[in-house]
Each structure stands twice: as structure tokens, then as C-alpha cells.
Amino acid sequence: MIQTPYYLIDKSKLLQNMEKIAKVREISGAKALLALKCFATWSVFDLMRDYMDGTTSSSLNEVRLGHERFGKETHAYSVAYADYEIDEVVSHADKIIFNSIGQLERFAEKASGIVRGLRLNPQISSSSFDLADPARPFSRLGEWDVSKVEKVMDRISGFMIHNNCENSDFDLFDRMLGSIEEKFAPLLQRAEWVSLGGGIHFTGDNYPLELFAERLKRFSGEYGVQVYLEPGEASITKSTTLEVTVLDTLFNGKNLAIVDSSIEAHMLDLLIYRESAKIAPNKGPHRWMVCGKSCLAGDIFGEFDFENDIKVGDRISIQDTAGYTMVKKNWFNGVKMPAIAIKELDGSIRTVREFTYADYEQSLS
Q1: Cis peptide before 281, with omega less than 30 degrees from 0?
Q2: Rounded Cα gap, residues 241 and 193, in angstroms
Q3: If DSSP codes are grouped into helix, strand and coil, which group holds residue 109?
Q4: Are 301 and 277 in contact (CB under 8 A)?
């Protein structure tokens, strides 16, 4: 058995998401780009590459990784590019999407050899978290004034509009896209391509894939544009577990199990959004709070029900841990970084990366 903690990516479960993405691509004509900000574990790009059209990025490092490890189409986006990095960004990208007119005007000439676009902010979103809402008041994410964008249309050929966040409601997606069409019609009619971003949970259970694909196809035909999607979570949902081992148990009004992992270090979004981890089947007569091993008092995965009482040495599988975990993992407290393992389609498991003291030491000065 592999020493815990480690992330275990199950290719058979990843394949289920890929097949849904392929179906949407086939029906709608849309292209799908992996959002590296959510998941960038390139050891499974060999599988994903056959079902997706490329990658989209949020930084120089991500656009380089997409270009070198995934290939195919490579879209570059950043909230702001620095003078010292723009040339390298352009060298790795097929398309570059600027966040503002100011950035476009500053770097349009340097990016004249590749396709250029601009981010639009429709000022509506599906986000229930102000922290993650791209359309929040005073948002810096994209341009919203149609008259200002019309003046720079000679420098761009398309747009990125990212306003969905964990949106599993097709009707809400449909209504928001209708609002986008109403607001930006003069711009869409002059565009050649439009990316609708990520945050659309179309690979989730019971999502109406055919209706979604037909809506995309209708949007594409209405404006004569190539549609792009940027699935992050939708690409990897339910594909990965974080395997941990119980190190100690305590009772302090509740049964507490301390494991060899940490939400602050290994599942940071749980802490940021104050959410609980997922454990399956989460049924049984024994309720335990599963706690991380860092010194942070709130380092808690959640409370769960188990068939049997927890004891030292037990293994626990934290479910659905691919998104925003490996890309955010950190060395808080110097806690051991989880290895990364892959369960192949034939059922065999191989470790693709282990982290050592040297990695910890070299991450510092």
C-alpha cells in the first residue's frame, strides 16, 4: 500500500467526465479547454487530451504548462500581465485574452502575432460566494461598457465571459446567457469566437446535456462564433480521493480522529469557503469529527458517520478532491505533502510523484 497521505486519481471516473465533454462538443460544435487554475496534474493529460481541445490559463506558468504538457490550443488569460513576462506568454499561446482595455492597449502590439481577445463582465453571475463572484460590485474582472469596447474591436476578434460558478442549474445558465446576448449583442455580432468560461457543472448527475449542447449550438449559430467552454471542476469532478490514515483519537465532547493530512495544506478551499469534505457512504451509528494534523484549531475536514468506531491506523478516503487542491497545496507547518497516484483503466495503481524534505527546503530561501 502507498504511504498516506496521497491523492488518488481514478482514470475510469475521469473518463466518465471526458465522455460527457465529448458529447457536448459533438452536438454543439463547441470546443473545450481544461482550466488549469482548477486542475493541472499533467500526468493524466494523456487521457484528457483525446477528449478536449486544449487548455486555458491564468498566468505565465500555466500557459507554459498547457503548451508544453497538453499541447493543442493554448489560451492565455491573466488579470494583469507584467512587462517582463508578456513576451514569454505570447510565445506559448495561440490566443491571448486581456482583462481590460488598458492591458489590451499596452500589449496589443507585442501580441500582434496571435489571436487577441478581451474579457467582458456581464455584471450578473451564479455565484453564491461574494469571494468568488466575478460580477461583485467594483469587480476588476473584465470590461462592461459596450461603447468603450466597440472602440477597440479592430484589435480583437473575440471575447471571454466567465460568470458561472458551480452552476448546476441549466435554466439559470440559459437565463444568464440570454441576458448576455441582450447586453452585448452589438459586440457578439462582430466577434469570431466567444468563450463562456468555466463554472458550468454540466458533467454532474442529471444535468440536461442535450439541452445544454443545443443552447450552445443556437448561440453559436445566432452570432456566427466559435464557442469555447473552459471546464475545470466539470472535467475532474468525482475522479479523485485524498487517502489519509488516522494517527490519534480523542474525546472532547465529540469523538475526534486526527489524520495525517490538513485542510489548510491539502484542501484549502474547504477552509476558504467554510465547507465540509465529503466521505462516502457517510452512514452508520458512529459519528466522528475528522481533524487535520496542523496546529490550526479550525483544521477540520468535517463530521461524518461511520459503520464502525474509528481507531488508530484506519484509512479514510476523502471524496471528490481533484479540484483546487493539488494546485493550491502548500507547506503550512511543514506537513508532509500528499503524493500523487493514478489508478489506471486496468485497475493498477502507480505513484507518479512523491514530495520530500528537499522539496520543502527548496520552496523556501
Answers
A1: yes
A2: 36
A3: coil
A4: yes
Report which secondary-structure segment, H or E, holds 288: strand 286-291
DSSP state string for 127-176: -S-GGG-TTSTT--SSB--HHHHHTTGGG-SEEE----SSB--HHHHHHH
198, 26, 143, 325: which is closest to 135 by C-alpha?
A: 143
Q: Give the Cα separation of 336 and 1 in Å (integer).
A: 17
**Contact present, 305 and 283 (Cβ < 8 Å):** yes
Q: What mean pLDDT, rounded, does the chain reach?
A: 97
Closest to 149 in 3D by CA, of 192, 99, 106, 113: 99
DSSP state of 338: P
Residues with Cβ < 8 Å from 57, sequence gap 6 or more? 36, 37, 63, 65, 66, 74, 75, 76, 77, 78
Identify the three-state secondary structure at position 42. Answer: helix
Long-range contacts of 24-28 (CB under 8 A, 24+ apart): 24/202, 24/209, 24/212, 24/213, 24/216, 24/229, 25/53, 26/213, 27/209, 27/210, 27/213, 27/214, 27/217, 28/212, 28/213, 28/214, 28/216, 28/217, 28/220, 28/227
Instruction: Please give the share of the chain, as a percent, with pLDDT higher than 70.
Output: 100
Amino acid at 197: G
Q: What is the pLDDT of residues 294-342, one digit of tens each?
A: 999 999 999 999 999 999 999 999 999 999 999 999 999 999 999 999 9
- The full length of the chain comes to 365
> Using one digit for the tens of pLDDT, what is the confidence trace for 81-114?
999 999 999 999 999 999 999 999 999 999 999 9
